[in-house]
Design a protein that fits this description.
By secondary structure, the chain is mainly β. Helix content is about 5%, strand content about 50%. It is flat and about 75 Å long.
């Protein structure tokens, strides 16, 4: 199950903000392709809270209700990757939840998402949605006034959505939507306690389709293959993140990394990567100073690791997943391996940024804000 500690690696994430900017390359001014049709939606949501750890059982007693508004743009073939993924939709939503519990209060969230078609006919659509964004919780954990709120310890949190949707036409432009979803809210261990909220959800609502059935643009086969297919690349990057050690120490400690990563584009949708990186986590130094006797030599808290991974490509955006192993780890504050999930966006052919979640055994370690260059 997901937990605030980030047991669904996605928290990732936290920043799918580049999703709305999917693009393989800018179109020439003289050949701008028409934009795809819009879909507008409004849905009611009903949920319950999963008691994924004993520390949140006292809060898993209410049945939160919510309302969602969203707008989606249907990709139409103006970029080659649209056809490679069978013309998904790109959307943004606003989600309101009332948790029916004064300890938790309410939440307000906005997500950017990709809606992938599984089945599509003139009247029926079955889609899978994956999205992430930012949520605001007015009510949060406070040791003096709200110590029972072990789920939400910061007002700003990441949100992750997984959803299966069925849309059936009930009129020329209108569709009835039924769905099953899992909504997750977490701060990625930047503040503690960090147990998070997992909300299995049923939803019902309506979509207004600007065009139905959808008709894609004609594709030019000559431009369908990516220019860098079969090419190698080298990335250099550095990152910064912040984390809190525990509930009693409210300070935020900086965590830095430097990475050298090599890769190769193996097909339209994928890069394979391998890399070497170093980490400096200042919270570990504070932890050692608290637990070590005066005068005792402290082990080095710096770490180095090697990793292998995959990047799933959507034009300039990539969804990355890494599995790493520590090769230098004098202070063994964690297991010998780590995972990472993240979103990487190329602002140009040379420069990129990413938001990553580094994880130890399914528990969030730190959210990394990364900048890099491709050589």
């Amino acid at each position: 199950m997901l937990s605030v500690a980030g047991r669904f690696p996605g928290v990732v994430l936290v920043g799918m903000a580049g999703l709305g900017s999917f693009s393989a390359a800018a179109q020439p001014a003289s050949a701008v392709a028409p934009k795809g049709p819009l879909i507008l939606g409004v849905y009611a949501q009903g949920s319950f809270i999963i008691a994924h750890t004993p520390a949140v059982k006292h809060l898993a007693v209410s049945h939160p209700t919510g309302l969602e508004l969203n707008v989606q743009r249907q990709t139409n073939g103006s970029e080659p990757w649209h056809a490679w993924y069978k013309y998904p939709k790109i959307g943004v939503n606003l989600v309101y939840y009332d948790y029916r519990n004064p300890v938790l209060g309410r939440s307000y969230a906005s997500s950017i998402y990709l809606n992938k078609s599984i089945l599509r006919t003139a009247r029926h659509e079955l889609n899978f949605r994956l999205g992430t964004g930012i949520a605001y919780f007015p009510v949060r954990f406070d040791l003096a006034t709200n110590h029972k709120n072990t789920i939400v310890s910061s007002r700003l949190n990441a949100t992750l959505q997984l959803r299966l949707e069925y849309d059936v036409a009930v009129a020329e432009h209108w569709g009835l939507l039924l769905g099953l979803a899992l909504n997750h809210y977490s701060n990625g261990a930047t503040t503690k306690p960090n147990f998070g909220i997992n909300l299995p959800t049923v939803l019902v609502g309506f979509n207004y389709h600007q065009q139905r059935p959808f008709q894609p643009l004609a594709i030019n086969p000559a431009t369908d293959e990516p220019a860098d297919l079969g090419h190698n690349f080298l990335d250099l990057s550095t990152s910064i993140g912040w984390k809190q050690r525990n509930e009693s120490d409210r300070r935020k400690y900086a965590v830095n990394s430097v990475t050298v990563m090599g890769g190769r584009r193996i097909n339209r949708k994928s890069n394979l990567v391998v890399g070497l990186e170093g980490f400096y986590d200042r919270s570990l130094l504070a932890q050692l100073q608290d637990t070590t006797r005066t005068g005792e030599a402290l082990p080095d808290v710096k770490k180095a690791g090697v990793f292998v991974g995959h990047e799933l490509l959507f034009g300039r955006l990539a969804f990355g997943s890494h599995l790493g192993f520590y090769v230098y780890n004098p202070y063994k504050s964690n297991k010998f391996y780590y995972e990472r999930l993240g979103l990487k966006y190329h602002v140009s052919d040379r420069f990129w940024g990413s938001v990553d979640l580094k994880v130890h055994r399914g528990a969030a370690d730190v959210v990394e804000l990364k900048v890099g260059t491709t050589l």
